[in-house]
Amino acid sequence: MSQKGKTDKPNELDTISFEYLSRKAYEYLNKQQDICNSVYKIGTYQNWYYDQLTGKLTFSDNGTKKLIIDYEEVGSVSEVTNTFLWAWANPHLEENIKTEIAKVKEYGLKRNFEKLTNSKWTADQYDGWEMTAIASYLLKSKGAYRVPTSNKKLFSFMIFRNIRWADSTQLN
Question: What is the Rg, in whole angstroms, of the alpha carbon atoms belonging to the chain?
């Protein structure tokens, strides 16, 4: 109880613990993913393609773009080294796809949440999704996606800044 006699309740971003943050983040991301699946039918398209230079993730069917998403890179999980690497610490990523992710690190610094502030640490796919959920929650994304890289041992996690329907322009 506070001195005013009211029960203190943490606000959305003033979390009590990392576990509380994680739980709230998963609740938020699950709602966003439900919208992505029901409205945009993510997961039903034949092809996906992402481009770091443009910061766009596109979905297509039969050579026709259907959906265009502006994305923010969260980080990656390597199944070779069993580690998670935050996008803000990855020098191989284009700057335009990691413009907001440092806010997650700043949040972690204020609350001493090591997983949000250590650039690279031992992790698996679950950890990648947890960091993606937390980034999604803190940055109020519209959804998230995980893509394998060409070697299929490194998975890139991204959150959606903006989602829009594409016109019927043919893919190259």
Answer: 17
